[in-house]
Amino acid sequence: MFLEDFFSHIKNQYTNNLPFVAYRKPNDSRVKAMLQNTDALYSTQGFEDKGFVFAPFEDSSQTVLIPLEHSETKCCDFNSLLLNNSSQNQIKTDETDKRTHVNLVQKGIESIGMKHLQKVVLSRCEAIPFSENQFLSAFKKLLQNYPNAFVYCWYHPKVGLWLGATPETLIHMSGNRFKTMALAGTQSYKDSLEVTWNTKEKDEQQFVTDYIESCLKPYVNHLSVTEAKTVKAGHILHLQSNVSGVLNASLHTILKKLHPTPAVCGLPVNEAKAFILENESYNREYYTGFLGELNVMETTSRNTNRRNVENNAYHSVKTVTNLFVNLRCMQIKNNQALIYVGGGITKDSIPEHEWDETVSKAETMKQVLMS
Ligand SMILES: C=C(O[C@@H]1C=C(C(=O)O)C=C[C@H]1O)C(=O)O
């Protein structure tokens, strides 16, 4: 299928108020779509269904499924669209927003001093004027600008229109093998991956790694955890450890343990969540929730570079799940782009720096909003 046809299917689906998702996995050359046949609102209870799942931060009853059995699928090669991407955006941040966020972070730091809270991830939502019918152009720019992110555009007429380019895997499963990551700590990218990390960032990333390791241990054989490495996400750097193993429990059991991780909520999880719900003055909805392919069949052909063509006939078909944390995302609503950004607060946080971090993260979306 040609790229233009692919995008016009998506446009028609949106014009007809029908649910869809279009997405490209990290470092993949294909962009895929699931176009639902009706506007029914499906959900998944046990994560055994096949399709594309879209789950919120907090209320699991709002988990939406685009079921494979009620959708048409499309796939297309995505090689750079050669968009004119030179626009430097001049969207200024607001002083009141800054004061509100700095106060919130200050309150978080004080709570960490008083209670046994170790880390809390605090966020905000910034509204930018943006015409809804420009969403495809923003999606194309996300695809082009962030090749190693999971880039998506998700729509349901009864829920909303969301776009994002997230660097964070929640869980990848192929058969019973799984991979996840502990991603935390942020600094701006300045032409090099050879950077030093402060204790604050190292600690907050280690909290996440330790938490993931301890909560998965009872359900995993051959658990392996790598040293934290610097990774690049757009113009931002993070610290990342990879975690992998073989699961001896259901996906649902693991998701209940993993979501929300201390990377997007805090530690201890319940205390951090209570602090967030009480003190963030808006509803995160699907930001810091998760999304992705659920139990879909994937065919991998082996030996494709061998001369012996008979070997090329060997295919392995596996059930795979590829879920990502919904970060670096926005909701398009009432001709506004609502950009969601946050960061991990520890006892060593400096409120002004935490504000700067959210400004820098918001750039990931602002870059694609200008025409
Ligand atoms: C909460 C966000 O990102 C998370 C928080 C990070 C941090 O505190 O350094 C880094 C990556 C993510 O795990 C966000 O992007 O909004």
From TrEMBL:
Residues 98-361 form the Chorismate-utilising enzyme C-terminal domain. Signal peptide: none annotated. Gene3D superfamilies: Anthranilate synthase. It holds the Pfam family Chorismate_bind. InterPro entries: ADC_synthase, Chorismate_C. PANTHER family: ISOCHORISMATE SYNTHASE ENTC (PTHR42839:SF2). This is Chorismate-binding protein. The lineage of its organism: Bacteria, Pseudomonadati, Bacteroidota, Flavobacteriia, Flavobacteriales.
